[in-house]
Amino acid sequence: MTMTDKKWKVGIVGATGMVGQRLILLLHKHPWFSLTVLAASGRSAGKSYQEAAGYRWFMNEPMPDMVKDKTVLDGEKDVAAIAAQADFIFCAVEMDKDALRALEESYAKAECPVFSNNSAHRWTPDVPMIIPELNPDHAEVIAQQRRRLGAERGFIAVKSNCSLQSYLPPLWPLHERYGMTKALACTYQAISGAGKTFGTWPEMADNVIPLIKGEEDKSEREPLKIWGKVTPEGVIPAQGPSITSQCIRVPVTDGHLAAVFASFEKKPAIEEIKDIWAGFDGLPQRLSLPTAPKRFLRYFDEEDRPQTRLDRDLEGGMAISIGRLRPDSQYDIKFVCLSHNTLRGAAGGNVLMAELLCSQGYIPQA
C-alpha cells in the first residue's frame, strides 16, 4: 500500500478564524488529508460551522459545502473526542499563551499530533519550528519531546512567524555559501496578518501603522532557532548572523513585502546570487509534496517587481518572489522579496509541514 492509498484524518482547532478558514480551503480537496472535525471556542461549540462562521467568512472563495453542516466542537473541553476523530490537528486558536501551551500539550499527550500556527511553543527547545525547505532535519527533536510528554505518537510542531518567511528563504542559501554576518529587514505587512479585513479594520484604509507589537522581536530571534542545531538538549539556536528589523502595517489585504540588506564574510557576485536562487529547492520539492511550489524562489528581472497584488499568489501563494537585487553602499547587497502571509506564512506553510512529516513517517495512519 502506498502512502496515499488511505487518507489521514485531520481536525482544525480554531476553525472559525482567518487562518482556520484558509486551512479549510486548503484541506477540503486535499489528496492526502480528509477533514473530519472542526473545533473552536466555547461560544461556537454546538453550532453548525455555517452558523458559527458564516457571518464572518473572510475568504474570497465560497465556504465549501462539506463543512457547512459540521458541528463545531469545543477545542478546550472536547480534546478526547477531537483526538479520537483525527490522526492529527492544525491549531490556529487564539488564547493566552500559557493556556495555549497547556492545550497543545494536552492534544499531544492524547496521542494527537499538533501542527501549530501559534507562537506559544516556538521557544520550547524540543518543539521543532520548521520551514520545510530550510530545516526539515529539526523534526528529529520530536523523539525528545515525546519522551518528555510521555507520548508515543503525539507531538507538537510549529511554524515560524509570517513576518520572516519572505526574507529568510532567500537568505538561507546565501548564508550557507557565503557566511552572512548581518542583515536588516524592513517588512511591510498586510492587514490579514492581524486577522483583519478592511471591513473589520476601517482605520487601516489610507493609513500606515509603524508598529506591530512583538513582531520585530520574532523577526530577529526566530531565524536563529531555524538556523540552530538539534542537540540532546533540544534545538539550540544559532548565535548569528545578527538580524535587525522594522515591521510596519500597510493597507493591503494579503502579502508581506520585505526590503532586505545583507553583508557576508565573502561578498557574492550579483549574477551568482541569481543562479543560487534559481537552483535552490528543498526536500518538499524533491518529494513532490502536494502543497510544495515547484519553484520555491522566483526572481523577477523587471525593476518594479515583485508587487504585492501581482505576485502574492505565485504558485498557489507558496512561492517566494524576489526582485531589485543590487549592491548597497552600507551592506554588500539589497533586494526586495514577497510572500503570501496567510498561505506560505500561515495555513499553507502548516499544511506543507504536515505533508513533510507524514511523508517521513512521523504520523502513522490509524
Tell me what you see in this structure:
This protein is an alpha/beta fold. The chain has two domains: 8-161 and 347-359, NAD(P)-binding Rossmann-like Domain (Rossmann fold, 3-Layer(aba) Sandwich); 163-340, Dihydrodipicolinate Reductase, domain 2 (2-Layer Sandwich). Helix content is 30%, strand content 21%. The chain is built from 13 helices and 14 strands. The chain has helices at residues 18-27, 49-53, 65-68, 79-85, 97-109, 142-149, 168-178, 215-226, 270-279, 283-286, 308-311, 314-317, 343-359; strands spanning 8-13, 33-40, 73-74, 88-91, 114-116, 156-158, 180-189, 229-231, 234-236, 242-249, 256-264, 297-300, 320-327, 333-339. The strands form three sheets. A six-stranded parallel β-sheet has the order 3-2-1-4-5-6, sandwiched between helices. Strands 10-7-11-14-13-12 form a six-stranded mixed β-sheet. Helix 1 (18-27) crosses helix 13. The longest helix is centred in the last third of the chain and has 17 residues, at 343-359. The protein starts with 7 loop residues before the first strand and ends in a 7-residue tail after the last helix.
How many separate domains?
Answer: 2
- Give the class from helix and strand content and strand pairing: alpha/beta
Gross geometry: globular
Radius of gyration: 20 Å
The total count of helices amounts to 13
Helix % is: 25-40%
| CATH architectural category of the largest domain | 2-Layer Sandwich
Please report which band the strand proportion falls in: under 5%, 5-15%, 15-25%, 25-35%, 35-45% or over 45%: 15-25%
On the 0 to 100 scale, the average pLDDT is 96
* C-alpha termini separation: 14 Å
Task: Detail the poorly predicted runs.
Answer: none
Order of helices and strands: EHEHHEHEHEHEHEHEEEEHHEHHEEH
Please give the CATH class of the largest domain.
Alpha Beta
Strand order of the largest sheet: 3-2-1-4-5-6
CATH superfamily of the largest domain: Dihydrodipicolinate Reductase, domain 2
